[in-house]
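Title: Comparing notes on inverse folding

I've been comparing how different people in this forum approach sequence design from structure. To keep things fair, I'm posting one structure and asking everyone to reply with a full sequence. Here's the target:
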C-alpha cells in the first residue's frame, strides 16, 4: 500500500468489494477556503467518521504558497479576464498528499451523540458493496478535479467511487487550475476532471460536498438499510416515484388507495408505473436507456 496516513495503516489493503468490514475511505480536500468543507463532518458523514468508516483531511492550499503575499494565482497567459491558479503551489500540495506526508487537519464528527441506531436500521439487512470493474491501478489514489469542463458526475460514478480507499479533491477557484497541474498529477494519481452540472459555480468546494455525500452514503454500513439507496432514483435507470406517509388524508388530498392493499406485487407494480411515468415526463432520455417489458411499454403508451 502506498498510504502513509495515520489511520489507514490500521487496515489491510482490501480491493475486494465483498470485504466491506475492512472498507475505509480517506478523503483529502485541498482548498483555499477550508471552512467551506465543514459540512463533511455533519449528519451521516459525521457518523461515518465516528464509526471509523470515513477519514477526512482538509488542507489549506496556502500552506504550500511561498513569498510575502502567499499568492496562489496569477494572470493568464494569452490575456483575458480572471486569474489562474499557480502550478508551483498546486504541484507540491498534490505531491505531499499523494506521498502521505500531510498529517493533521483532520475533521472530527460534529455529532458525537450519533452512536445510537438510526431510524432506517433494519436488523439482518445485508451490507454489500457495489460491484464495479476495477479502473486502472487502485494503488494510486483517485484525484478528482471539479470543473464545469469535466465529465458529468453520475450515480454510476458514485457507486464505483464508494469502493475507493483514498480520494483527493483539488478545489479550483477563479478561472481554474493551470492545466499542467492536472497533467503532471497523472504520474501519482488516477485523475478525473468532473463536472456536477451544466452551470458555473464560484469554486470547487460545493462540488466536493455534492460528490462526497453521494459517494459516502453508498459505502456499506453508512446507511442502516441498504434498500434506502437500492431503490433510489437512477439505481435502476429511472427516477423514483412519489412517497407518502401518515396521515392518510391531508388537506383534502388522499394517499393512493393501492398503498393500503397489503398486496406487495400490486404495490411494486404501482411504484414501477409511477417511476416510469415521472421519468417519461421529466427525463424522457432516461427511458431510452431503460430495459422495458410489455407492461412497462403499455403504461408509457409505447405500444
Ligand atoms: N473558467 C472555468 C470554465 O469556464 O470552465 C470556470 C471556473 S469556475 C468560476 C471556478 C471553479 O469552480 C472551477 O475551477 C471548479 O473548481 C468550480 N466549478 C465551477 N462550476 C463547476 C461545475 N459545474 N462542476 C464542478 N466544479 C465547478
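Reply #1:
Here's my take.
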Amino acid at each position: 500500500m502506498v498510504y502513509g496516513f495515520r489511520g489507514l495503516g490500521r487496515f489491510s489493503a482490501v480491493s475486494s468489494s465483498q470485504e466491506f468490514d475492512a472498507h475505509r475511505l480517506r478523503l483529502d480536500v485541498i482548498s483555499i477556503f477550508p471552512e467551506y468543507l465543514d459540512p463533511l463532518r455533519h449528519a451521516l458523514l459525521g457518523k461515518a467518521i465516528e464509526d471509523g468508516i470515513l477519514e477526512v483531511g482538509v488542507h489549506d492550499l496556502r500552506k504550500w504558497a511561498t513569498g510575502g503575499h502567499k499568492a496562489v494565482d496569477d494572470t493568464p497567459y494569452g490575456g483575458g479576464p480572471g486569474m489562474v491558479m499557480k502550478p508551483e503551489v498546486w504541484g507540491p500540495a498534490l505531491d505531499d498528499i499523494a506521498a502521505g506526508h500531510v498529517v493533521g487537519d483532520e475533521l472530527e464528527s460534529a455529532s458525537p451523540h450519533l452512536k445510537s441506531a438510526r431510524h432506517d436500521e433494519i436488523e439482518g439487512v445485508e451490507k454489500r458493496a457495489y460491484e464495479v470493474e476495477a479502473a486502472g491501478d487502485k494503488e494510486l489514489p483517485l484525484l478528482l478535479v471539479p470543473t464545469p469542463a469535466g465529465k458529468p458526475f453520475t450515480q454510476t460514478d458514485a457507486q464505483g467511487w464508494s469502493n475507493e480507499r483514498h480520494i483527493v479533491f483539488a478545489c479550483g477557484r477563479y478561472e481554474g487550475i493551470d492545466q499542467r497541474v492536472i497533467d503532471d498529477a497523472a504520474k501519482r494519481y488516477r485523475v478525473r476532471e468532473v463536472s456536477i452540472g451544466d452551470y458555473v459555480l464560484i469554486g470547487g468546494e460545493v462540488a466536493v460536498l455534492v460528490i462526497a455525500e453521494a459517494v459516502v452514503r453508498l459505502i456499506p454500513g453508512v446507511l442502516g438499510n441498504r434498500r434506502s439507496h437500492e431503490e433510489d432514483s437512477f439505481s435502476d435507470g429511472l427516477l423514483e416515484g412519489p412517497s407518502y406517509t401518515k396521515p392518510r388524508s391531508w388537506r383534502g388530498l388522499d394517499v393512493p388507495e393501492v398503498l393500503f392493499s397489503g398486496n406487495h406485487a400490486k404495490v411494486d407494480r404501482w411504484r414501477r408505473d409511477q417511476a416510469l411515468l415521472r421519468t417519461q415526463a421529466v427525463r424522457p432520455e432516461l427511458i431510452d436507456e431503460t430495459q422495458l417489458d410489455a407492461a412497462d411499454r403499455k403504461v408509457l403508451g409505447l405500444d
